[in-house]
Design goal:
Strand order of the largest sheet: 4-3-5-14-6
Number of domains: 3
CATH architecture of the largest domain: 3-Layer(aba) Sandwich
Strand content: 15-25%
Number of helices: 9
Oligomer: single chain
Helix content: 25-40%
Number of strands: 14
CATH class of the largest domain: Alpha Beta
CATH superfamily of the largest domain: Periplasmic binding protein-like II
Order of helices and strands: HHHEEHEHEEEEHEEEHEHEEEH
Largest sheet: 5 strands, mixed
Structural class: alpha+beta
């Protein structure tokens, strides 16, 4: 679509964003200072121009179609970019404002990110933060998020990647468990000891270890399988067996003496460890609030890098 045809649709796109955010034509019309019929006409014009159905209309509510969701997210980004252009001359901390949408995995969000986000909002009170806590890797465009935070040594190639930290898995057991079982000195010793597996798939019971140029795989067994890291920590502390934890989950227990790290000369390989990645869609004009968020997270998470 050439520019001459696109320009008249920009206002229609802005109205689509308002309709979705307000929930119906009437509320959008009040906010825009026009009639509901005028709003409806512009949405219809946008649908005709794009050749797709954007909204499913019922007597009580509006719902975005799948194509409408994708279009809305792009239109929302357009509005935010326009707001950033208007405010481009204001780059001081006190004027930074707008919405940031961030997706992060559950345990990392709860144990590491939650206090940092609270601190960030105190520093920038005009910013609104929408946190989506999920262990799924979201699509920034389709799912409508500005940033993905996840732990992975293989970041998504299509996105800009900023390494903001690193996390490793720590193998540990409780003092009571070790008082009643032999201390493992080599990964092979785990074959004869009860271990806590994630239970997400068949390979979870095959633990892979590396040490310099050595690699070994051990088939472990145990009566308790659970894929929640904080519940697994509690089970380890209660003496159910040997298990692996993200370092940011294990650290407090190790410091207090409730957990004893094991096989520290070996690296346990697998999922849920690696670089802590902050990823976002490439943009020529990155909003100031986004830059500030990136810099803040890089600075605050330096302390949990384990290189």
């Amino acid at each position: 679509m050439d520019t001459n045809k696109l320009i008249p649709l920009l206002s229609d796109m802005a109205i689509l964003v308002t309709v979705v955010e307000q929930g119906n034509f009437s509320k959008a019309a009040i906010k825009l200072g026009v009639t509901p019929s005028a709003v409806s006409r512009q949405i219809s014009r946008l649908e005709d121009a794009l050749g797709i159905k954007l909204l499913q209309r019922t007597t009580r509510q509006l719902a975005l179609t799948e194509s409408g969701t994708l279009t809305f997210n792009y239109c929302k980004q357009m509005i935010e970019s326009a707001e950033q252009a208007v405010n481009a001359s204001s780059s001081t901390t006190s004027t930074v404002s707008g919405l940031l949408r961030v997706a992060a995995p559950k345990s990392l969000a709860n144990r590491v990110l939650r206090p940092l986000f609270a601190e960030f909002l105190k520093c920038y009170p005009d910013i609104q933060l929408h946190l989506k806590v999920t262990d799924r890797i979201l699509d920034p465009i389709h799912d409508g998020v500005d940033f993905l935070i996840h732990i992975n040594d293989s970041p998504i190639e299509a996105l800009v990647n900023v390494k903001i930290g690193r996390s490793e898995q720590v193998l540990c057991a409780s003092p009571d468990f070790l008082a009643n079982h032999p201390l493992p000195k080599h990964p092979d010793d785990l074959k004869d000891l009860p271990c806590l597996c994630l239970g997400e798939n068949m390979s979870d019971s095959r633990w892979r270890f590396s040490q310099k140029n050595q690699q070994t795989t051990v088939q472990v067994t145990g009566s308790y399988l659970l894929n929640h890291s904080e519940m697994r920590r509690d089970a380890i502390e209660q003496g159910f067996g040997i298990g692996s934890l993200p370092d940011y989950i294990a650290q407090q227990g190790i410091s207090s003496g409730k957990l004893i790290p094991l096989l520290e000369d070996w690296r346990l390989q697998g999922n849920y460890q690696g670089d802590i990645c902050l990823q976002y869609v490439q943009s020529k004009y990155l909003p100031n609030k986004n830059r500030i968020f990136i810099d803040f997270m890089k600075q605050k998470l330096r302390g949990i890098q384990h290189n």
